[in-house]
What we know:
Blueprint: H1 10-26, H2 33-38, H3 44-47, H4 50-66, E1 69-77, H5 80-89, E2 94-100, H6 102-105, E3 115-126, E4 129-139, E5 145-147, H7 154-159, E6 164-173
Antiparallel strand pairs: 1-6, 2-3, 2-6, 3-4, 4-5
Amino acid sequence: MEIETTRISCAGAATAFLLRRLGALAGGYAPGVQDQFLRELSVQSEGGDLARVARWFAGRTSELARLGNRVGARMVAIRTPAILDWVGAGEGHRGAVLATAGDVLHPGAGIQSAHAIAVACESTRRLGFLQRDGLVGFDPWPGMGRLSPLPAQLEEAHRRCLHRAFLLYSYGWS
């Protein structure tokens, strides 16, 4: 599953990516049907920043549930290490969209607009055992993609945006 690239709605693209990922893990993701629905987040009016994403999510929670996804969300302002611990403890059933200062996270990339990344915990099965690989970032800015390991400057980039984050968690499927 790849994250959509965008210069105008990083928060929306990161949220849509996590919703697809959480839905797939819970067995409630139907490509095509949900992709059209989640595409709304790729326009600036719906996904341009975390506040717009939170409004979109509040209006779409029941529709997501009808499509088979039981996902909760909450807008917070919590320090980066606490968010990363929370995501990691969810073992793949939690994710976070962190508002970040793109010029701090990726110096020289020319990011001047609102920026955000998705953070998730990846786990794999090896020899029949679940092995936690750790936290991975997914950056929708063109040319960035998967961030593993998480960049050292993530905490500073998140702090510059007042530690704003949109937390997502799966609580089953229907």
